[in-house]
Specification:
- By secondary structure, the chain is of the alpha+beta class.
- 35% of the residues lie in helices and 35% in strands.
- Strands 1-5-4-3-2 form a five-stranded antiparallel beta sheet.
- The protein is elongated and about 50 Å long.
- The N and C termini lie close together (6 Å).
């Protein structure tokens, strides 16, 4: 029994100002895009908008990386971005259908922009 690995990559960048506008103009946006854990984490920060924007671009980067593997669009809330005990962001696909996928992400932001880079690794085992 062998295994086959595929790698997908994705990136995204967003203006925090534009993101602030989306949050203000569309109150349902948070629930459509973020999990309760993500919302609580971002709201606990001094400037929540930067953290919401970083997680948003992280999810977009993951979706692009999945598309690079030929996996159709995944719902935003099926992706959760958490921080490990050491503070490193980690992407998790919550649907068991994607248990063979590992997600690595890098998030960064300043006062005006948020950027993310994702590498997605899919392992398929031959029977």
């Amino acid at each position: 029994m062998g295994k086959k690995e595929k790698i997908g990559i994705g990136t995204d960048i967003e203006s925090i100002g534009r993101f602030n506008k989306m949050l203000t103009d569309n109150p349902l946006f948070l629930k459509k895009v973020f999990t309760e854990t993500e919302i609580a984490y971002c709201r606990s920060k001094h400037n929540p908008s930067q953290h919401f924007a970083a997680r948003f671009v992280g999810k977009e980067a993951i979706i692009k990386a999945l598309a690079d593997l030929g996996i159709p669009s995944v719902n935003f809330t099926m992706i959760e971005i958490i921080n490990t005990a050491t503070g490193v962001p980690k992407g998790i696909l919550t649907n068991p259908k994607y248990s063979n996928i590992q997600v690595n992400i890098s998030l960064s932001h300043n006062s005006t922009m948020a950027i993310a880079f994702a590498v997605v690794r899919q392992v398929e085992h031959d029977e």
